[in-house]
Automatic annotation (TrEMBL):
Residues 109-204 form the GmrSD restriction endonucleases C-terminal domain. Keywords: Signal. Residues 1-27 form the signal peptide. The lineage of its organism: Bacteria, Bacillati, Actinomycetota, Actinomycetes, Streptosporangiales. This is GmrSD restriction endonucleases C-terminal domain-containing protein. It comes from the Bacteria.
Length: 210
């Protein structure tokens, strides 16, 4: 099973910036999204188990956003990676550019309107096995730039998602469901997280749309 590290992320950024989704043609996407057949094989290999320890979750146990390069933290790095014509200040804050959210197809020109979504929510990861990780591993997960875990999306859409898994929430743009499921499965597989039965059923249904 592949193990993703923050150190590997820097080399992935240039390649990631050129990647386009097939369902939201103007949205740039993270690296490492597998094919539908690979995602189906990964889903079959993921352990199915009930979620655990939900009442002990604390977002502070997943330190983010961390410094990636110079003055740029993870959020700022994703904004640069997944935006177009992004201009930044000396402190790496995005002062102009445009971002198209693959979740709903909306385009924004103010970075304040864009959230960086953890595709597999941090609370969901906790309930699916991250409760047993070290803090350093949780930090690596929360700042994972090497895989398809971090997405630049419309802020209120991300807030509506909250910590829900695909059994409880799916992107408003149904044409994106195939890509969403492929990426979500890959993150869970790569990080050795479990899925519950309803989550697996929802993911299978989304992959059937591919």
């Amino acid at each position: 099973m592949r193990r993703v590290t923050i150190l590997a992320a820097a080399t992935a950024l240039a390649l990631a910036a050129a990647t386009l989704t097939s369902t939201a043609a103007h949205a740039l996407t993270p690296p490492g999204i597998p094919s539908a057949s690979t995602a189906a094989a990964e889903l079959a290999a993921i352990t199915v188990a009930a979620e655990r320890n939900a009442d002990t979750y604390d977002r502070a146990l997943f330190p983010h956003w961390i410094t990636i390069s110079g003055t740029c933290n993870t959020r700022e790095t994703v904004l640069k990676r997944d935006g177009r014509n992004v201009v930044t200040s000396s402190s790496c804050a995005a002062t102009s550019g445009s971002w198209t959210s693959p979740y709903d197809g909306a385009t924004w020109t103010a970075a304040a309107d864009v959230d960086i979504d953890h595709l597999v929510p941090l609370a969901e990861a906790w309930r699916s096995g991250a409760y047993a990780w070290t803090t350093s591993r949780r930090q690596a997960f929360a700042n994972d730039l090497a895989g398809p875990q971090l997405w630049a999306v419309t802020d209120n859409v991300n807030q509506a998602k909250g910590d829900a898994d695909p059994a409880a929430w799916k992107p408003p743009l149904t044409s994106f469901w195939c890509t969403y499921a492929r990426a979500y499965v890959d993150v869970k597989y790569d990080w050795g997280l479990t899925v519950d039965s309803s989550e697996k059923s929802a993911l299978s249904g989304m992959l059937d749309r591919c």
